[in-house]
Amino acid sequence: MHIIIKEPHEIELMREAGKRLAHVHNELAQIVKAGMCTKEIDEAGERLIRQAGCEPSFLGYEGYPASICVSINEEVVHGIPSDDRYVEEGDIVSLDAGVIWKGYQSDAARTHIIGSVPDEVKKLVEVTEQSFFEGIKKAVAGNHLYDISNAIAAYIKPYGYGIVRQLTGHGIGKDMHEAPEIPNFRKLSRGPLLKPGMTLAIEPMVNLGTWKVGILEDDWTIVTLDQEVSAHYENTVLITDGEPEILSL
Question: Mean pLDDT throughout 27-40?
């Protein structure tokens, strides 16, 4: 497994890509509301990405037809924006977005609560986000990759949620998906050694019920098999000589 170590000039470009992506997510958080169709969210996202001087990473990637993945409730990831899918009060909406800035990528996802939701759903969203931060406590040079995975899994386990196994985080740089894959579930081995200059997209995907997922007929949208809701939280992270740096916050 070859994990690309980024040079200082590459890190600067990825830092800038991350900053611009963070701005896109912050703006989208203000825009998303009940009554919108998911296509409107995608159009707003693409506009924001291009206004930031970036290209959308996802548009056309392996045939994906949009710039923002909009996944509602039981949709885990890769929901395709549509004219006839509307956001409703009580939904949770996961927005996954990527940008390309001067040839370098950044990738991040957020789950938004629309209006009032049951406490158990609110807790799922909170735990999913916090599990990312628990994981990156281990994202330190000298540790191993699966130390991150195991910290995420250990934080989630007491809540009894399903951690998606078919999808993982990933390395990122010039390409959206680079080595290594970064599981969010427990691994028995330790995995590769973490070194300064590695850039990782770490993204817990956590379900209220079963960890098992399926794919819809559109060949993109991943859904929970039991139709329970799912939350997603992701950032692009740089391994440094000290504390990890979150590039997309």
Answer: 98
Question: Is there a domain that residue 191 lies in?
Answer: yes
Contact 113, 72 (CB under 8 A): no
Residue with tokens 């009580």: 90
Q: Where are the beta strands (DSSP E) in the chain?
A: 55-56, 68-72, 75-77, 92-101, 104-113, 162-163, 169-171, 178-182, 199-202, 205-207, 213-215, 222-224, 230-232, 235-238, 245-246
Q: How far apart are CA 84 and CA 27, in angstroms?
A: 23
Dist CA 122 CA 159 (whole Å): 13
Would you say residue 207 has pLDDT above 90? yes
The average confidence (pLDDT) of the chain is: 98
| DSSP 8-state code for residue 144 | B
Task: Judge contact between 39 and 214, C-beta under 8 A.
Answer: no
* Beta-strand pair 230-232/169-171: unpaired
Domain-embedded: residue 150: yes
Per the structure, the count of domains in the chain is: 1
Token pair for residue 40?
């409107």
Whether residue 1 has pLDDT greater than 90: no
pTM (predicted TM-score)? 0.98
Q: What CATH number is given to the structural domain containing 200?
A: 3.90.230.10
Burial 185-198 (b: 16+ CB within 10 A, else e): beeeeebeebeebb
Cis omega (within 30 of 0) on the bond before 180? Answer: yes
